[in-house]
Protein: Immunity protein 22
Amino acid sequence: MRDGCWPFHLFGANFATEAEAKKFVCEQWEPEPPESASEAEYVSWEERNPTWRLAEELGFYMDSDFVELIGTTEDVIAQIRSPSERALFSSKATEFTHFILVGSNAIWGDRRSTSTQVETLVRLPESTATITYLGLFN
Structure:
């Protein structure tokens, strides 16, 4: 990461509210079972949690520490080093209410792979029903 700018995949999205955006972008956890819960109930809870719509739609295993929800074009532009990349982003920015930055180091595995081994990623992220892929920046 040179001069404070980090490489990231950028997505645009349209959410009605900030809460709706966070529900999609952030991992969601059910309340933890009470201490009186059986081992089976606790194991079942662990298997169901967390849910993470962003990772599920993209089809990647991801680290949520390197995913950021941004609501303003100015904040996205501040993350982009190259003037030409800033111009590219600015030409598309008005189409979206929210932006999602996924660090290039956040994606560590492909859920679509049939291999049992950890492999180098062979595909880039892509648009889904909810989000539009705007490209790899920096």
About this structure: The mean pLDDT is 89. The beta strands are 8-13, 60-62, 67-70, 98-103, 107-110, 131-137. The helical segments are 18-25, 39-48, 53-58, 73-77, 83-93.
